[in-house]
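So, read this over?
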Amino acid sequence: MSENGYNRPNQSNETTQTQTSLTWSDLSKETKEMLAGKLAGLWGAPTDAAAFDSLALDKKQAMLLLSQRLRAKSLWHLVKRVTNVYGEGGVGLQFEAWPMIESTLLRRDDFTRWLANHRNTSGGFYEKNRAEAVLHFLFQEGQPRKWYVHFDLYSPVHSLRSVWKHLRHEFLGKLRPDWRMIAKSLNT
């Protein structure tokens, strides 16, 4: 299985990035098990497979990048159900979370609340041990609380160099990395 969760041997990242279609049946058994129970209901889809297959390619790639990164960080189990996916104007998910997500992130040494809030959100957490392709969690109060996670291309909390890149490209330049940019940063 490749890093992106495909059930295609010897497939390079370059091939993956130029791929024009991807279906549930293309996913490895491990990836299907990881997504099981988290996609059904997304935009009215009755099953995980139907939900995944209804997504545009950029959203499928975003889903795979985020789910695998969250799993690698032992955080994927905190996602109860995915409610939205975006992949071109940013790589992220909106999701329903299990109640222990905030306390889990608070206890982790590799996440911080520093600079993690946005204007229209109630709070957030930044991954702090990476300079590029960093996880950024946000939440909005409500019943239920709305959770989001996306990748920032450059970290505003890792180092002075990454702060400068974040300010220059993402804050001032309004750059919203797509899944290709994130995949490249994760693989370097």
Observations:
- Strands lie at 79-86, 91-97, 111-112, 123-127, 132-140, 146-154.
- Residues 38-186 form one domain.
- The chain has one domain: 38-186.
